[in-house]
Amino acid sequence: MIWTVYLSGEIHTDWRDRIIEGAREADLPVEFTSALTDHEASDAAGDHLGDETDPFWRDHKSAKVNAIRIRNLIEQCDIAVIRFGDKYKQWNAAFDAGYCAALGKPYVTLHDPDIVHALKEVDASALAWARTPEQVVVTLRKVTADFR
User: Fold this and answer.
1) Phi, psi values for residue 5, rounded to 5°
2) pLDDT above 70 (res 148)
3) Which residue(s) pair with 81 in the sheet?
4) Which pTM was predicted?
């Protein structure tokens, strides 16, 4: 079995690359998917539907276009990794975690200890909390080990 792992959340650090590289080095039976991680492209995803003078409506259209990809990828994944960084609030990541929980999709949260309290409800539904991308890789190894 090849496991599909959806990577959600913060886009300003190399955490995705570290997980993907670690999984490759460990020869794990996984493939990765993700939301669009180019901030400008994500913000412009709905621009082809017409110009907007109000930023709310531009964001609204782009969020809906982005949601087509995100919802499908979450629904198709076997496990999600939801990353919360310390620099920006990742409301989209919290929404993705809630969507996973509603669908019964297992997910792992990835964040520093200093935001544990803020994420207590999100972590309560997670099946694991990792502090480093390397811990995520070990978790993936343990989860997929019987299928190799």
Assistant:
1) -115, 120
2) no
3) 7, 108
4) 0.94
Token pair belonging to 30: 């996984």
Domain boundaries, the chain: 3-39+73-147
Is pLDDT at 147 greater than 70 in this prediction?
no
For range 16-22, the mean pLDDT: 98
CATH architecture of 3-39+73-147: 3-Layer(aba) Sandwich (3.40)
pLDDT of residue 90: 84
In order, the DSSP letters of 8-65 are EE--SSSHHHHHHHHHHHTT-SEEEEE----HHHHHTTTGGG---SSHHHHHHHHHHH
- Taking residue 110's Cβ as centre, other Cβ atoms within 10 Å add up to 27
